[in-house]
Amino acid sequence: GDGWVRIVHPEDRxxxxxxxxxxxxxxxxFETEFRLRNHAGDYRWFLARAVPLRDSxxxxxxxxxxxxxxxxxxxxxxxxxxxxxRLWSMTQDILLVCDHEGRVTAINPSVTAILGWQEDELVxxxxxxxxxxxxxxxxxxxxxxxxxxxxxxxxENRYRTASGDYxxxxxxxxxxxxxxxxxxxxxxxxxxxxxxxxQSQKMEAVGQLTRSEERRVGKE
Length: 220
Fold this sequence. Notes:
By secondary structure, the protein is α+β, with helices and mostly antiparallel strands. The chain is 42% helix and 31% strand. It starts with 9 loop residues before the first helix and ends with a helix.
C-alpha cells in the first residue's frame, strides 16, 4: 500500500506522495528523487521510477519500479553548487545571465562594485540600456550570433556606471538553452595604461627623430 511513504524524508514526503497519486490516477510513469530512511535511521538519496503493467484490456494490474541510489551524485552536485555560488560571490569579474533579448535575469556582486548599479536596478532591464551609444549597434548584433550557438570572446564595449561615466569591459559570452551567460572583465585602467605607453613611445620616437635631424643640420 502506501506504507513506503513512512520511510521517505519528511521534507520530500508530500511531493513524492502527490506524484505517486497522480501516476495511479493517470497511468503515467512515476519518477521522483527523494531521501529514504534505511534500517539504521540514516537517509540516502534515491531516484525512484515505476511503470504500470497492463492486461489485454489496457487496465493497470500492477506496477514495477526501481530505486537507484544516487546519494554520492547528490552530494557531488551540492558541492558543485556551493563552489559555483562561492565563485559567483567572490570573483572580481562581472558575471551575469540574460535572455536572448539581452534582458538581465541575474548579476553577481561585482556588477555593483564595478558599475555601481544595484541588483534591482539591472535585473529586468535590457543590457543595451546601459551600453555606450557608439557601441550599441555592435552589441545588439552579438545576440543573433549567440542564439545560433556561437560564443563571443574578447568582445569589448563600454557600460554606463551609476555615476554616469563609462567603463570598458572585455566579455566572454556563452549561450545555454534560452539563456546567455556572460563574464565581463573591467579593462578600463589597463587600456588607459596601454594608450599612455603607446603615446609615450610615440613621443620618444618623435624626440629621437628630432634629435637626429638637429645633429644632421648641425653637421651641415
